[in-house]
Amino acid sequence: MGAVESHPQESAQEALEAKIHSLEHRAEAASQEALHKGIQQGEAEGRKKALAQLEAELQRLARTVADMAGLRHNIRREAEEELVRLALAIARRILHRELSVDPDALLGLVKAALAKIEIRDTYRVRTHPEHAPPVTRYLAEIGAPQKIEVVADPSLEKGSVIFETGRGSLDASVDTQLVEIQRGLTDLIEAH
Question: What sign results for the dihedral spanned by CA atoms 95, 98, 103, 105?
């Protein structure tokens, strides 16, 4: 009789254990599914967040590249301007040294100036005292009118030569020519 009564209890206990096992299995499966969904959602959110950060960094990088391109242009333009100034400073020094050694070197500027003006309208040429004799000699060589007065003007620097005509004056001095060259080169640089 004791064996018969324990059998229904064992059966109920086994059924209960089976139900518990089934519930544990379903809870484990639900937990795994929830974990898997959570991981997927986390990965998706992480990708979304990483893409947003990456996009912000790419935009910042694009702005930096654009700034660098502008900076490169500015540096290049400034370097070109500095090179023009340096080249003209070197030319000025060389020309003034050449004029100190050979006052006749100024005659190239005199020839160029005479090509721009009407020599018959010229009544005076002012120049530094060291340049007056070569200018006078050159004007005589080319058959310039004798009415042209060559004035040795101590207030002028070496390399200065100013033609005075009935229409105005022309400054053909070394420094004036170099300033014109600098202006032309600066305009050319700014145009690019």
Answer: negative
pLDDT in tens, 121-163: 889 999 999 899 999 999 999 888 889 999 999 999 888 999 9
Which two structure tokens, joined as six digits, stand for 156? 């002028």
Q: How far apart are CA 87 and CA 52, in angstroms?
A: 52
Would you give the distance in Å from CA 40 to the centre of its chain? 50
Beta bridge pairs of residue 161:
127
Taking the mean position of all CA atoms in its chain, how far away is CA 59?
22
Distances (CA, A) of 169 to 49, 76, 118, 156, 164: 75, 38, 12, 15, 4
In which element (H, E) is residue 168 found? strand 168-171
